[in-house]
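User: Reviewer 2 asked us to show a designed sequence for the structure in our supplementary figure. I'm pasting the structure tokens here. Could you produce the per-position amino acids so we can include them in the response letter?
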């Protein structure tokens, strides 16, 4: 069996977290794995461009669900803590609604309750405690039947949830959206807004996202870590571990075509014309790229592309290495709200334009660790506002300039002045994300989780072409670093299950390590 596995050659396309995890787990199981990545480094969206000599985390910044990575490393006989230094952040995020109107959420729920009590009164703090209980129940209910399941359907979910699970979901209110569900918990609109923002972690609007997305809140309340060396260090570590397990990783190799022979994926062709035969292929790019024909005509039927209205949020970001001044005390994760939250999502999803009143997120990657040396004179910052995907009319420079000016003047009003210059600031717009991640139209989280059925509409690890599997934030269980990592596990598990003919009829499911059945 071992030599048969070694003879099975898998080509993984893309070194995003989903592709890296799939490559690692398949190599650890003894398969022959070649990973081809278009960029010069691993990580995909976990990228770290150099700005003014400083490496700035310019993709994901919030590291949650550490247990997912503990299991992935363990499944390859390694320990996460041996490769990476993770620090538990005491402050989850600092939030501001105007100059001086600020509130922190803490890793310690008691501290959060006290902070909410001081900020919005003891009754609101009691409502926060009730909310946490409901969010926990939703998370616990959905983790097994949905998040860890290979490709859940309404029918499989109904069976797996049982009466207790169905009762938890029914308690959210029939077909309730996240915004309304939060309105039933919180009387202070600022807290409703704070917890509604978690819909954006899946690239969605709180007004269209189902109330079940409150589980994202629970994920963050369960802990946020910072990674020494930035999130990109996680990608480098996964890549190195995959290589230690025998995978070959090749950078600067864009795959132009997936060949299909006799109805089955059989080879890939790089844009330099090299043909690499494959017994199986795992695609970690944006799933829509296949349906759009970006990987050749034969692969089109693997999965249909998203329509513009199904796309999730894009972003307008600034990676900055600069001195900051003002009374606002930067922590690692900082959120600056404006009062009219609905207008922001109306602009993005209904009017396809940059928000006139953006919520601004600032990651100060050198802050937040109480044991760290005092921040350097200049901060490494990622400033982010939500933006529409680029399926329709492209945004022009003057719209982007106007949004930039709203963004940085809002920060200054709230007490944070960032001394930017053209040399110390790198702007990334939706069109740039589209170039970096072909087929995405700049949307960063695959399909938006809009409506109760949307979560069931994501493709699973299997595609319609035998031998071609999918991993990444655009497939089940969805976007975010830990979820995309789980999709890599599911792709590896599905492929292994197909190799093992005896297990064909059983459902694939992630349990402790890579396991499958
Ligand atoms: C600005 C920003 C902020 C975010 N914030 C967070 C956060 O705080 N927390 C969180 O958990 N998540 C966050 N996310 C989402 C998270 O980064 C993604 O969901 C996750 O990293 C996606 O991983 P993936 O496996 O889908 O691969 P991707 O990161 O999408 O990478 C895919 C890779 O495939 C390569 N590729 C594509 N096509 C080809 C081809 N034809 N040939 C060769 N290579 C190819 C690409 O070059 C790329 O490297 C954020 C994303 C962004 C952009």
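Assistant: Here is a per-position design you can include in the supplement:
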């Amino acid at each position: 069996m071992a030599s048969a596995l070694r003879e099975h050659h898998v080509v993984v396309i893309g070194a995003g977290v989903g592709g890296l995890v799939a490559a690692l787990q398949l190599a650890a199981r003894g398969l022959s794995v070649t990973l081809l990545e278009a960029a010069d480094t691993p990580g995909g969206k976990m990228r770290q461009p150099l700005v003014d000599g400083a490496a700035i985390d310019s993709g994901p910044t919030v590291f949650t669900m550490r247990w997912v990575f503990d299991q992935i490393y363990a499944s390859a006989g390694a320990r996460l803590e041996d490769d990476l230094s993770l620090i538990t952040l005491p402050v989850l995020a600092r939030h501001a609604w105007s100059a001086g109107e600020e509130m922190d959420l803490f890793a310690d729920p008691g501290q959060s309750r006290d902070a909410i009590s001081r900020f919005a009164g003891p009754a609101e703090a009691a409502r926060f405690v009730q909310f946490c209980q409901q969010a926990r129940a939703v998370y616990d209910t959905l983790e097994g039947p949905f998040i860890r399941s290979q490709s859940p359907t309404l029918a499989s979910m109904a069976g797996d949830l049982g009466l207790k699970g169905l009762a938890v979901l029914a308690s959210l209110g029939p077909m309730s959206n996240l915004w309304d569900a939060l309105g039933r918990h919180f009387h202070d609109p600022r807290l409703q807004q704070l917890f509604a923002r978690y819909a954006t972690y899946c690239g969605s609007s709180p007004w269209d996202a189902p109330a079940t997305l409150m589980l994202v809140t629970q994920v963050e309340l369960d802990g946020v870590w910072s990674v020494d060396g930035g999130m990109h260090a996680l990608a480098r570590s996964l890549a190195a571990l995959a290589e230690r397990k025998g995978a070959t990783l090749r950078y600067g190799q864009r795959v132009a075509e997936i060949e299909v022979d006799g109805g089955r994926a059989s080879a890939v062709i790089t844009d330099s014309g090299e043909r690499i035969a494959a017994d199986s292929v795992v695609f970690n790019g944006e799933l829509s790229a296949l349906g759009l024909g970006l990987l050749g005509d034969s692969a089109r039927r693997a999965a249909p592309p998203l329509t513009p209205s199904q796309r999730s949020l894009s972003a307008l970001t600034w990676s900055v290495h600069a001195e900051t001044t003002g009374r606002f005390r930067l922590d690692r994760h900082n959120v600056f709200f404006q009062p009219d939250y609905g207008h922001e999502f109306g602009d993005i999803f209904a009017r396809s334009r940059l928000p006139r009143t953006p919520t601004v997120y600032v990651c100060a990657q050198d802050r937040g660790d109480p044991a760290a040396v005092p921040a350097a004179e200049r901060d490494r910052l990622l400033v982010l506002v939500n933006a529409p995907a680029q399926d329709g009319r492209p945004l022009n420079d003057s719209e982007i300039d106007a949004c930039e000016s709203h963004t940085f003047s809002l920060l200054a009003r709230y007490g944070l002045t960032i001394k930017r210059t053209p040399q110390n600031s790198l702007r990334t717009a939706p069109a740039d994300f589209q170039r970096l991640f072909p087929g995405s139209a700049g949307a960063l989280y695959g399909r938006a989780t809009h409506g109760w059925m949307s979560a069931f509409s994501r493709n699973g690890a299997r595609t319609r072409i035998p031998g071609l599997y999918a991993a990444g934030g655009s497939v089940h269980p969805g976007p975010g670093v830990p979820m995309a990592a789980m999709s890599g596990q599911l792709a590896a598990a599905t492929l292994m299950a197909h190799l093992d003919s005896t297990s064909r009829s059983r459902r694939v499911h992630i349990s402790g390590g890579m396991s499958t059945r």
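For the response letter, you might also mention the following. The two ends are 18 Å apart (CA to CA). The pocket of flavin-adenine dinucleotide is lined by residues 13-19, 36-39, 44-46, 59-62, 254-255, 284-285, 315, 317, 384, 437-438, 444, 472-473, 479-481, 484 (CB under 6 Å).
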